[in-house]
């Protein structure tokens, strides 16, 4: 059992290389099932969500070979299984992609309800409606197993009344081999949706319009293996951008697509940081103390909900009162209690948080309540006076590759400690 200990107050300096996107890999790895052959996937982040996804692929019968640190060969030709149990899905939300991928390949899938971060109610009714619209029979069986099956999937019009990343990707996965054309209206436009569509096209699919208001999928009879490099992780990049800004540092964040970061860049500039965009990097220079600003989370290209807790840390030491409106999830402010232990002054009323900026935070024992909440605690530790110890770091490791090493290379005083070393326990 380990924690992360951070001694704050050091401005971050240097360069950090961003890994492949967790949420793109989360869809692309299950999507290899549709190839029924060998795919080489590059720029795969080494995070626990990827480990769990590969475990599911292997249990279903795929052969996974590690070519190097971030490159995998996945052969789904021998894959025969179509059932994924709770024991395998409970770790992560993205296990729902096995429904679309198995349904698309075999016309049948049985997948236990997904796990993942507790951000409030996270139904998958839109996924189920998309499968049903394509002609599948969808049921929830004993032990919360969702089953979807169809003799034949047929292209159709799918309209989402709520923008959903997971349902958009799952609709594409199920539609690529359906008969005829599927039109997905009001889809999610996140960079990982576009990355998944481009990956499927290089496997032989015919998808147009990903990243726009309507996605058209013309079903094809067969797909094949290909080589693909996962898009950089915009949320990992944004996390380092906020950390650079709030510590008053000067950090160049490499291997990013600056366009994907525009919403984060705009808010950091508004709060007083300098952000210089390069071709595949952004340089963030923090000022003395951030200025207040207000943030509303929205589907892409709006401000990402997955950056909301990290931004709240910056605003908690800003000059003045800031407001955050969380419009995607109904329970994404649980981290506020932890932040309050460090001296932040935040009041939550439903979907809004009012943050009275304080001059400084104090180190404290805190815990990661979920993945991005954990990243927020780490940033809070980097800016606080004294030592912060973060417990339940397994949440952070779900989505950040080598986070301690990366922050240490930027000059942070951060390390893993065994729980028995913790001063918080003996204090
Ligand atoms: C994905 C991301 C997650 C991110 C979120 C929003 C992955 C693995 N996870 O989660 O990191 O925070 O997008 O950018 O990519 N909804 C329904 N019914 C459904 C599906 C969703 O009502 O069937 C609602 C949700 O409750 C939520 C909203 O739609 O209020 C958006 O959720 P969605 O985009 O689907 O998020 P996830 O795919 O779960």
Structure characteristics:
about 425 residues, alpha/beta, UDP-n-acetylglucosamine1-carboxyvinyl-transferase, Chain, 4-stranded mixed sheet, binds uridine-diphosphate-N-acetylglucosamine
Structural commentary:
By secondary structure, this protein is of the alpha/beta class. It folds into 2 domains: about 1-20 and about 230-420, Enolpyruvate transferase domain (UDP-n-acetylglucosamine1-carboxyvinyl-transferase, Chain, Alpha-beta prism), CATH 3.65.10.10; about 20-230, Enolpyruvate transferase domain (UDP-n-acetylglucosamine1-carboxyvinyl-transferase, Chain), CATH 3.65.10.10. Helices cover about 30% and strands about 25% of the residues. The strands form 6 sheets. A 4-stranded mixed beta sheet has the order 22-23-1-24. The chain has a 4-stranded mixed beta sheet with strand order 2-15-17-16. Strand 8 (about 135-140) and strand 9 (about 145-150) form a beta hairpin. Helix 5 runs parallel beside helix 6. The chain is globular, with a radius of gyration of 21 Å. The two termini are about 20 Å apart. The protein binds uridine-diphosphate-N-acetylglucosamine.
């Amino acid at each position: 059992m380990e924690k992360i200990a951070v001694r704050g107050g050091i401005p971050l300096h240097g360069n950090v290389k961003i890994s492949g996107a967790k949420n793109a890999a989360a869809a692309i790895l299950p999507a290899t099932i549709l190839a029924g052959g060998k795919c080489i996937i590059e720029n795969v982040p080494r995070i626990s969500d990827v480990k769990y996804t590969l475990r599911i692929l292997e249990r279903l019968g795929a052969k996974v070979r590690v070519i190097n640190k971030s490159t995998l060969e996945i052969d789904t030709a021998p894959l025969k299984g179509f059932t994924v149990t709770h024991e395998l899905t409970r770790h992560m939300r993205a296990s729902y992609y096995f429904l679309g991928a198995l349904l698309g390949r075999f016309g049948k899938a049985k997948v236990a309800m997904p796990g993942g971060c507790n951000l409030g109610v996270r139904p998958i009714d839109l996924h189920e409606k998309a499968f049903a619209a394509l002609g599948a029979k969808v049921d929830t069986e004993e032990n919360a197993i969702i089953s979807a099956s169809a003799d034949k999937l047929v292209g159709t019009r799918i309209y989402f009344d709520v923008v959903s990343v997971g349902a958009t990707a799952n609709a594409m996965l199920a539609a690529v081999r359906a008969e005829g054309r599927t039109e997905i209206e009001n889809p999610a436009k996140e960079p990982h949706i576009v990355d998944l569509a481009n990956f499927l096209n290089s496997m032989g699919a015919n998808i147009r319009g990903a990243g726009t208001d309507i996605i058209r999928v013309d079903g094809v009879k067969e797909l094949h293996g290909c080589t693909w490099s996962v898009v950089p992780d915009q949320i990992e990049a944004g996390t380092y951008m906020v950390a650079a800004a709030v510590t008053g540092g000067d950090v160049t964040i490499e291997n990013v697509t600056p366009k994907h970061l525009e919403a984060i860049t705009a808010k950091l500039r508004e709060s007083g940081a300098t952000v210089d965009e390069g071709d595949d990097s952004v340089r963030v220079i923090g000022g003395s103390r951030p200025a207040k600003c207000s943030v509303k989370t929205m589907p892409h290209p709006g401000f990402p909900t997955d950056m909301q807790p990290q931004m709240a840390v910056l605003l908690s030491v800003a000059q003045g009162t800031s407001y955050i409106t969380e419009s995607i999830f109904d329970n994404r402010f649980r981290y506020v209690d932890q932040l309050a232990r460090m001296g932040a002054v935040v009041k939550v009323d439903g979907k809004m948080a009012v943050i009275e900026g304080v001059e400084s935070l104090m180190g404290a024992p805190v815990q990661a309540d979920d993945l991005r909440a954990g990243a927020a605690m780490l940033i809070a530790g980097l800016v606080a006076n004294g030592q912060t110890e973060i417990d339940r770091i397994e949440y952070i490791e779900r989505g950040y590759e080598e986070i301690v090493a990366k922050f240490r290379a930027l000059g942070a005083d951060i390390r893993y400690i065994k729980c028995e070393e913790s001063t918080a326990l003996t204090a």
